[in-house]
């Protein structure tokens, strides 16, 4: 019975997600700094809750450290990021309340971002050029994994969704995995999804689910994430 209710909710949510599709960004219209900001956000999101990742990326952007053309050497750039992230960040709750928090693993976050900037821009490339060179959505995901430090299949897929590059990839986070266990009896651990071949195998299974709903993979993926997140928060599951 629970899975039937969850499926009805996902189907209804798919309609809302599709209706809001026009509000998505178009990566062709984004500046390189905006693309790097989105990459940083997804890097940080793999290390902390998403709200903290947003606050962290926003702070670095506000102080001018989201730098596609960084004139600082690698070590100095990394040190400046660490210094900025050593200060508490203001977090605004949904009810408008505020609290202060420091991001965890600031040294690791700084290393991942600084190394990404050095690897891409230090070699005369850009995120835009990587996307233009990719021949498919899966190809874009693979090249991002190879060039953006901290990106696994999930982070690369999330980035591509957020910048409006494609709607045919799944962001297989814990909420979606919990749905697959509920609906398909699949018991999966997130750590196994770091291997691209296994990730794509599970993604193909979820694509079958999307076909049953009659919507794109990206649409059903997001609708499932929203539905399962609320269901668990409300202790329905």
UniProtKB/TrEMBL annotation:
One Pfam annotation, family name? Ogg-HhH
Keyword DNA repair annotated = yes
Q: State the Gene Ontology terms under molecular function.
A: DNA-(apurinic or apyrimidinic site) endonuclease activity; hydrolase activity, hydrolyzing N-glycosyl compounds
Superkingdom in the source lineage? Bacteria
Keywords, ordered alphabetically: DNA damage, DNA repair, Glycosidase, Hydrolase
InterPro entries tied to this protein? DNA_glyclase/AP_lyase_Ogg, HhH_base_excis_C
Q: For this chain's UniProt record, which GO biological process terms are given? A: DNA repair
Q: What is this protein called?
A: N-glycosylase/DNA lyase
- Species of the source: Acidithiobacillus ferridurans
Taxonomic lineage is: Bacteria, Pseudomonadati, Pseudomonadota, Acidithiobacillia, Acidithiobacillales
């Amino acid at each position: 019975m629970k899975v039937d209710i969850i499926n009805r909710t996902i189907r209804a949510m798919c309609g809302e997600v599709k209706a809001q599709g026009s509000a998505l960004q178009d990566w062709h219209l984004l500046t390189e700094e905006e693309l790097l900001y989105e990459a940083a956000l997804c890097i940080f999101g793999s290390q902390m809750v998403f709200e903290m990742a947003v606050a962290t990326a926003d702070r670095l952007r506000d102080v001018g450290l989201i730098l596609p053309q960084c004139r600082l050497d690698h070590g100095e750039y990394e040190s400046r990021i660490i210094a900025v992230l050593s200060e508490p960040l203001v977090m605004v709750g949904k009810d408008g309340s505020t609290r202060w928090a420091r991001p965890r693993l600031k040294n690791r976050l700084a290393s991942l971002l600084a190394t990404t900037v050095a690897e891409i821009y230090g070699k005369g490339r850009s995120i835009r050029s990587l996307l233009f060179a990719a021949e498919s959505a899966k190809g874009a995901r693979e090249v991002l994994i190879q060039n953006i430090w901290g990106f696994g299949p999930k982070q690369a897929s999330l980035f591509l969704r957020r910048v409006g590059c494609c709607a045919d990839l799944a962001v297989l986070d814990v909420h979606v995995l919990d749905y697959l266990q509920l609906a398909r009896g699949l018991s999966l651990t997130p750590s196994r999804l770091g291997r691209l071949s296994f990730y794509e195998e599970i993604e193909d299974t979820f694509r079958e689910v999307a076909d049953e709903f009659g919507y794109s993979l990206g649409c059903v993926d997001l609708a499932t994430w929203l539905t399962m997140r609320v269901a668990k928060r409300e202790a329905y599951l």
